[in-house]
């Protein structure tokens, strides 16, 4: 499997509008962060996780025109408001792309973006919506799903397995539940939310993310969903072995 981090920023991205780089060095390219999204792929299968507002530019940079499936973790704007860019994927494949989400998330997406699922005014539907089950297989990738506490809602935590290798994508949560721990233990690569150092009601702090990664015994950990207080160089110099900040465009062979 190969992982590509399309975006690893928080809902405002880095820099924020107005040129707010916070503590991030603007001369370090890895500090420029678009909204969170990843691609997981093998030689035969490609899965997109989330469709944030920066999706067009992310897929252009990745030179990707088609995917086999989309999975939405939840319906917050920074994870789904680029859904219109799936129209170009529809044109590339000449059929709607299957889009998986937990039932409540799918209902919210259908309400907000009904035209994407049903078509409108002569335009065809671009997404074939499907409820995301606890376990499914897309191409040659097995996917297992757990509901993560994310404030008053839940997000979908995802484990991908293929060829004896494992990858977990865990963003937008604030509690590591027993169910999450059981699914995430001993993975080869863990991509985990690490919003900032200061506490937040719906996201992990840096210290929490590091402690959880170590408790899960991940072979390698990449941090994502980072805000403008999280400078790449400062983080890279101080994190424990096996844990590093992710960056937009990063590719990892699992």
Automatic annotation (TrEMBL):
Domain of life according to the entry: Bacteria
Xref: Pfam families: Lactamase_B_2
InterPro entries found in the cross-reference section: Metallo-B-lactamas, RibonucZ/Hydroxyglut_hydro
Residues in Metallo-beta-lactamase domain copies: 34-203
Classification via PANTHER family: HYDROLASE C777.06C-RELATED (PTHR42663:SF6), HYDROLASE C777.06C-RELATED-RELATED (PTHR42663)
Record protein name field: MBL fold metallo-hydrolase
